[in-house]
Design brief:
The protein has a three-stranded mixed sheet. Strand 1 and strand 2 (49-56) form a beta hairpin. It is an alpha+beta fold. Helix 1 (7-25) crosses helix 3. The longest helix is centred in the N-terminal third of the chain and has 19 residues, at 7-25. Helix content is 51%, strand content 18%. It has one domain (7-119): K homology (KH) domain (GMP Synthetase, Chain A, domain 3). It comes from Buchnera aphidicola subsp. Acyrthosiphon pisum (strain APS) (Acyrthosiphon pisum symbiotic bacterium). It is found in: Cytoplasm. Belongs to the RbfA family.
């Protein structure tokens, strides 16, 4: 029987859990006082880089979102250090944070579809 997931997929899932816990419990930056959701993690095949896609509860203002992403990217070395302690990997990937706006796009589409059904 073949494995359903390759190693990078399993590591991405584990990174998603650990980074979400670190952001919620260990990151004490007062500039980030909103709920942050780690929606997806993409790991390179050689496990040297990980792209972390996050969404914010209050993500209406694009400028605030960019500031929060910048803050998270500046704290990525601290988060990586905590990951080294919590995960048993020989190489812990470098972390790059990106904003995931798929929830907002999906919400806009559902509102448009809802308005279309009301007009009919």
């Amino acid at each position: 029987m073949e494995k359903l997931f390759n190693r990078s997929d399993r590591i991405a899932q584990e990174l998603q859990k650990k980074i979400a816990a670190i952001i919620q419990h260990s990151l004490k930056d007062p500039r980030i006082k909103t709920i942050i959701t780690v929606s997806e993690v993409q790991v390179s095949k050689d496990l040297s880089y990980a792209q972390i896609f996050v969404s914010f509860l209050e993500s209406d203002n694009n400028e605030k979102v960019k500031k929060k992403i910048t803050i998270l990217n500046r704290a990525s070395s601290y988060i990586r250090k905590l990951l080294c302690k919590r995960m048993k990997l020989r190489i812990v990937p470098n972390i790059i944070f990106h904003h995931d706006d798929s929830f907002l796009k999906g919400n806009k589409i559902s509102c448009i579809l809802e308005n279309l059904t009301k007009k009919e």
